[in-house]
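Q: Hand in one record:
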Amino acid sequence: MRGPPMSSAPGASSPLLSVVIAVFNEAENVAAVARDTLAALEASPALQAQGFEIVFVDDGSDDATVANLKALGDPRIVIVRHIGRCGKSQAVRTGVMAARGRWIGTMDGDGQNDPVDVVKMLDLALAAGGAPLVAGVRRRRNDPVSRLIATRIANGIRQAILNDGCPDAGCGLKLFLREDFLLLPVFEGQHRFLPALFKTYGHPLILHDVNHRARSAGVSKYSNIGRALVGIVDMAGVVWLRARTRAPKAVERV
């Protein structure tokens, strides 16, 4: 596919949920992640009745990531590919645009997120009503000590500056309405600031403790220093965006 994917707005026959998974050089993990996610979604009565899909967005991998997904041959798995690497935030947005579901759940593609949590988060959102952002919180993380320390510092700084109410904004597990996400401003790094952005637009936040598993194969694509340097610039941008946003509490036709 060349150029941005056409947006496919949900219709009457659209699935209830689309799970969007951005991946880059995860050939060793994607098949297991796909099978694990299918099993978790198939176990949900609501999703059995109303349908689901899994949208993988390959962000310009140069390994067998796409080939391993295609080999699964499951029609419920949608594969979209970037020609060249664009970054995780754009990959998530590409997946949301390609998705047909009313609700979007996001996961990482390294196998550390538990897809069972996506189902639990959907249940929380449906029970709450309205248009919340449900954010996963990793209380017990299976990461190196250096990453745990770096993340704790980053979360503390972000909370002090943005006051977004989320202790773990970097967790890949999120759930929201498709239409609400597509109204947010677009920039690389957006995925780390979704609680702050959704709050600016008046959406309630629901926190959900999630399981965090050890990576079984492959390596992380981020360094602590690189993430910190980019995060400083991104946070300054989010502060400016929030200061310049005047979102209405409600809109009514008269």
Notes: The CA atoms of residues 70 and 79 lie 8 Å apart. The domain at 17-243 is CATH 3.90.550.10 (Spore Coat Polysaccharide Biosynthesis Protein SpsA; Chain A). The beta strands are 17-23, 52-58, 77-81, 103-108, 133-138, 174-177, 205-210.
